[in-house]
Every structure is written in C-alpha cells, then in structure tokens.
Specification:
82 residues, mainly alpha, 4 helices
Amino acid sequence: MAHIDHKVRLFRSKYEGDLRKIVTLGCSVSGCVNDGESEMEEDQMNALAKLVMSLAEKCQPRRRRSANVDAAEDNKVTPIRG
C-alpha cells in the first residue's frame, strides 16, 4: 500500500497544476448540472474532457530509441572479439 501512495504522491507533485484545473472544471460542471444550465454544462464538459485527454497524453511513457539504430535496421549482429 505504501508503494502505491508513493506513486500517487509523485504523480500529484508532477501534474498538480493540471489536476487543479480538472478539479475546478469538474466542480463547475456539477454546479451547472444542479442549476439546469445545459448549454454551459456541455461547454464545460468538453473543456473538462480536453484537459483530461491532454493530461493522459502527458502521462504516457515515452519510447526510447536504441543506442545503435543502424545495427537494428540492418538486422546484423557483429561479434565482439577479445
């Protein structure tokens, strides 16, 4: 359980600004739902979805390129002789 809490803390510290925007918009959307303002609710839901998608894209791990791209492209293995 402590391992998960550590990951959550790291994620929160890294993306705290984005998370605050998402929470603020989420609260705004729920306020519009309670007030019955359907047009404003739809606009804010779209903005909320955009923020969530952008955060999801930021969080995806980046693929690293291998150090020796030429050897991988040629599919040749060079023996190391000592």
